[in-house]
From TrEMBL:
It comes from the Eukaryota. This is FRIGIDA-like protein. It comes from Trifolium medium. One of its GO terms (biological process) is flower development. Transmembrane segments: none annotated. Pfam families: Frigida. Keywords: Developmental protein, Differentiation, Flowering. Belongs to the Frigida family.
C-alpha cells in the first residue's frame, strides 16, 4: 500500500514538473520572439492611409523622445493590444499593484473568490502598474509557511490553504505577465533573482520533510515550489 502511494506521488510530481517545464520553455520561446518583433518594429513608424482601419508601414526613424514614450509603462498598460485599464472589471487590482500592496492583493482576491476566473484574467495586466511586479509577487509569498500551524492542521486550515492557492495563482500570473513583456531583465533583476533563490532554498527542506500523503496542503507546497522555479 505504501509503495503504491509513493509511486502515485512520484508520478504526480513528475507530471507537474513536466507541465511546468513545457510552460517555461514556451515562455522563453515567446519572449525571444517578442524581442525579435520589437527590434523590427522599433525601426519603423506607423501611418494610416485614407481607408480607416488599414495600417501602412512606412520606414521612419524614431527619435529618443518617441521611443521613450512607447516604452513608458503607462502607455503599455493603456495600449489597445493590452487592453484599456479603464475598461477593466476590477480597477482596484491596478491600484493595489501600483501601491505594491501584497497583503491588500491577497485580501482582494480572497474577497472576490467567487469571480476568481475573471480576477485571474486581469492580474497580469494590473501587474504592469506595479513599480516592481516580481518583487510584489515575492512579497505575496510571505506567510506561505506558517510556523504556528502544525503539518496536520494545515490540511484543515482553510485560510492558509486559500493563501497558498492565491500565492500560486500570483506566481502563474507573473509568468503570464513576463511572457507578454518585451524585456524580462527589466523586471527580474539580479537582486530579485537572489530573493527568489533564497525563498526556494528555504522551502526545499520543508518539501523533503513532507509525509507520503501529497493531497491538499502538501500538493500545494510542491506546486508552489515548482511554480516559483518556473517563474523566476
Amino acid at each position: 500500500m505504501l509503495e503504491k502511494q509513493e509511486a502515485a506521488v512520484f508520478a504526480k510530481e513528475q507530471a507537474s514538473l513536466q507541465r511546468l517545464q513545457k510552460k517555461r520553455d514556451a515562455s522563453v520561446f515567446s519572449i525571444v520572439n517578442a524581442r525579435k518583433k520589437h527590434r523590427k518594429v522599433s525601426s519603423k513608424g506607423f501611418v494610416f492611409n485614407e481607408s480607416p482601419g488599414t495600417p501602412v508601414v512606412e520606414e521612419k526613424p524614431l527619435d529618443a523622445a518617441s521611443t521613450g514614450a512607447e516604452c513608458n509603462i503607462e502607455n503599455v498598460q493603456l495600449s489597445p493590444e493590452n487592453g484599456n485599464v479603464d475598461l477593466m472589471s476590477y480597477p482596484e487590482l491596478v491600484k493595489l499593484c501600483k501601491e505594491m500592496d501584497a497583503a491588500g492583493l491577497h485580501k482582494f482576491i480572497s474577497d472576490n473568490r467567487k469571480n476568481l476566473a475573471a480576477v485571474r484574467e486581469e492580474i497580469p495586466l494590473a501587474l504592469r502598474a506595479a513599480p516592481n511586479a516580481a518583487s510584489l509577487v515575492l512579497d505575496s509569498l510571505e506567510g506561505f509557511y506558517c510556523t504556528e500551524v502544525s503539518s496536520q492542521d494545515i490540511k484543515k486550515d482553510a485560510n492558509l490553504l486559500g493563501l497558498r492557492r492565491t500565492s500560486i495563482m500570483l506566481l502563474e500570473c507573473l509568468s503570464d505577465f513576463l511572457t507578454n513583456l518585451g524585456s524580462v531583465s527589466n523586471v527580474i533583476s539580479e537582486d530579485i533573482k537572489d530573493r527568489a533563490k533564497a525563498v526556494a532554498e528555504e522551502w526545499k527542506p520543508r518539501l523533503d520533510a513532507l509525509d507520503i500523503d501529497a493531497s491538499n496542503g502538501n500538493s500545494l507546497e510542491a506546486h508552489a515550489f515548482l511554480q516559483l522555479l518556473a517563474s523566476f
